[in-house]
Design brief:
162 residues; 2 domains; three-stranded antiparallel beta sheet; 5 helices
Length: 162
């Protein structure tokens, strides 16, 4: 089974993504999704020598629910800032967030989470992948923003990935 699906999580993600993009569960869509879910991981396995070890897959579900909730709340906060806060009171900041994640996939997931959340953006990785440069639309206390990213997202990703 490992020969057909060298990266089962990638295959599942590709299958789901294709079906969501197609917007249909027709036979053609399902067959195309299955073909992509098998072929892409097979053709790219040489570029993935080490698969990420997910220690607790169910915690990934709760992480995704947390991120979805945070995106909703951040949209409301950003709308409030843009619509009601005078421009002179907006305190944008560049924040360096030191990270200690076990694999590049976890680091990428953290960077994507930050970028998906309105009001923040991952601008750069350090050369050694031990820090992220984040831009925050409104961060009156940059240290608190950094600490929140570490406690809210990084700590959960550390528990999910080995």
């Amino acid at each position: 089974m490992r020969h057909l699906f060298p990266h089962p999580m990638l295959s599942a993600t590709l299958l789901l993504a294709w079906l969501l993009l197609a917007g249909s569960l027709s036979l053609n869509s399902v067959l195309m999704a299955a073909m992509l879910a098998m072929l892409i991981p097979l053709l790219t396995r040489a570029y993935w020598p080490n698969r990420p070890q997910i220690r607790h897959p169910l915690r990934m579900v709760s992480y995704l629910a947390l991120v979805l909730w945070d995106v909703i709340i951040a949209n409301i906060q950003v709308a409030r800032i843009i619509l009601f806060m005078p421009a002179a009171q907006i305190k944008s900041a560049w924040i360096t967030v030191p990270v200690d994640l076990p694999c590049p996939e976890a680091l990428t997931l953290l960077a994507g989470t930050i970028t998906l959340t309105p009001g923040t953006l991952t601008a750069e990785f350090s050369a050694d992948n031990k820090a992220l440069l984040i831009h925050a639309l409104h961060a009156p206390d940059p240290d608190a923003t950094r600490d929140e990213i570490k406690s809210r997202y990084e700590s959960r990703l550390q528990r999910i990935f080995r």
